[in-house]
Design goal:
Helix content is 70%, strand content 0%. The protein has twelve helices and no strands.
């Protein structure tokens, strides 16, 4: 009888993890420690599903972070609804990632990843429009999502059109984006063992990105980019590599 009860409890918890990943993640954050092996597996999931390209969108959404939820003024009910819609869009995106041809070159893989990412955004946008109580909160989501994606935000056709980017500018930003992805691929597994170094290098890279972007954009484009980008937020490594942090860093990786 005890074994049967234990079996039922285990499966009940597994079901809760599927329905409320944000709730389960919140409980996990309270654990005093996470094994290095488990951390490493969590980080490797970001980079192996598509044959080596960093995956920005995980089953746990980037806006599950408590600080970001506060920025977006999301209560539990709003978050759970938004997370449910996120999971639906993410499922199609994840299938696309898993079915990528491993024979693709890095440039081809980058292009296909951009297509999948843009498709995910298009699918998820209707849920965003109905989930936020105010236009200001919806706008803040767009700004934070832009900051989170870094150079990858410039692969969005809508943003390219908004800034009126030239083909030369697109290529320059794509070159920076590929380098950014290489670093993220390296930092993912490293974060399980050396969080401080990864946090420092991530902060440095995000600061450098501000300079790189401004060297590519014209003064007029820079002004519009600043509006779309909004007030900089401190994106810490645990947002990119969920499950790999048990403490908060004071470093401030800012992409202006």
């Amino acid at each position: 009888m005890k074994n049967i009860c234990r079996f039922q409890l285990t499966h009940a918890l597994a079901a809760m993890a599927l329905v409320w990943p944000g709730l389960v993640a919140a409980q996990t954050d309270k654990s005093p420690a996470v094994s290095k092996q488990q951390n490493s597996q969590n980080q490797e999931a970001n980079v192996t599903a598509d044959g080596g390209h960093f995956n920005f969108y995980n089953q746990t959404p980037w806006f599950a972070n408590s600080g970001i939820r506060e920025q977006l003024q999301l209560n539990d009910k709003q978050y759970n609804q938004l997370n449910g819609d996120y999971q639906k869009s993410w499922s199609d995106y994840d299938n696309g990632i898993r079915n990528l041809d491993r024979g693709l070159t890095e440039e081809q893989r980058q292009e296909r990843m951009n297509e999948l990412s843009n498709g995910f955004q298009k699918s998820f946008n209707p849920a965003l429009d109905k989930s936020f109580a105010t236009a200001a909160a919806r706008q803040r989501y767009n700004q934070l999502n832009t900051q989170y994606r870094g150079y990858g935000a410039f692969n969005d056709p809508a943003l390219q059109q908004e800034l009126n980017l030239t083909d030369v500018q697109k290529k320059q930003l794509q070159t920076y984006d590929r380098d950014w992805n290489r670093k993220l691929r390296k930092w993912g597994p490293d974060y399980a063992d050396d969080r401080e170094t990864v946090a420092r290098e991530l902060a440095e890279s995000r600061r450098a990105a501000s300079t790189h972007i401004n060297t590519v954009l014209t003064p007029e484009q820079q002004m519009r980019w600043k509006e779309l980008h909004g007030q900089p937020y401190e994106f810490t490594p645990d947002i990119y590599f969920p499950g790999g942090s048990t403490k908060t860093t004071t470093l401030k990786p800012v992409l202006k």
